[in-house]
Amino acid sequence: MVSNNQAAAPEKLPERVSASLATLQDIFHQRNPTRNVEVNLNKSILKIGKDNLQLTINSSHDGYVYLVMVGSDAQSFYLLFPNGKDGNNKIQAGQPMRLPRPFVWEIYPAGPAGTDHLLVMVSDSPRKLDELAMAAPNEKNQFTYSLNSLRGRSDLIDFLTGSGVAGTSESFGARLVSFKEVK
């Protein structure tokens, strides 16, 4: 038990979780602060296999939305959007975008219990999906993913902030949010 005079030591995260969160934070910190991105989750705690994730995104600028998640197992980064079922990732300033789009695709937590971290990025220029180390999403495998390894983290950063830029602007706004998966 900690007395009122002592601060609790910060919780030590496993190395893979810490590295994956640091990767998302690194991308987040490279955002253009004049590009405001707001994200509202339907729930911050989701029951594994029962609740589905829904979010609403608002952007101060027109752009292209990308959702990158590192799940509670911290094994891989998943590019949730755009995906093999829904590739229309254009957003207009001040026009809310609800994802996943009803009757098109859904996201259900699959466990294990723990915290998922989601980077919501709105870029000025689209990103080249084929620049990721894994195949582009398709109808059968709707989410592209990159392994949570040194190479996978580097590929993800480069895809979102560097060589993966398909247009003339690397500028983007971003928001980093978390939600819990519970049994």
Major β-sheet annotation: 7 strands, mixed
What is the alpha-carbon Rg in Å? 17 Å
Order of helices and strands: HEEEEEEEEEHE
Query: What proportion of the residues form beta strands (DSSP E)?
Result: 25-35%
* Tally of separate helices: 2
The general outline is globular
Number of strands: 10
Average pLDDT figure: 85
Low-confidence stretches: 1-12
Amount of helix: 10-25%
Q: Could you tell me how far the N terminus lies from the C terminus, measured between alpha carbons in angstroms? A: 27 Å
Structural class: alpha+beta
What's the short version?
Helices cover 15% and strands 31% of the residues. By secondary structure, the chain is α+β, with helices and mostly antiparallel strands.
Describe how the helices and strands are arranged:
Layout (H helix, E strand, L loop, with lengths): L14 H15 L7 E5 L3 E3 L7 E5 L3 E8 L5 E6 L8 E2 L5 E3 L14 E10 L20 E4 L2 H12 L10 E11 L1
Parallel strand pairs: 2-10
Antiparallel strand pairs: 1-3, 3-7, 4-5, 4-6, 4-8, 5-9, 8-10
List keywords for this structure.
183 residues, alpha+beta, seven-stranded mixed sheet, three-stranded antiparallel sheet, 2 helices, 15% helix, globular, disordered N terminus
Task: Explain this structure.
With 183 residues, this protein is an alpha+beta fold. It has helices at 15-29, 150-161; strands at residues 37-41, 45-47, 55-59, 63-70, 76-81, 90-91, 97-99, 114-123, 144-147, 172-182. The strands form 2 sheets. Strands 2, 4, 5, 6, 8, 9 and 10 form a 7-stranded mixed beta sheet that branches. Strand 4 (63-70) and strand 5 form a beta hairpin. The longest helix has 15 residues, at 15-29. It is globular and about 45 Å long.
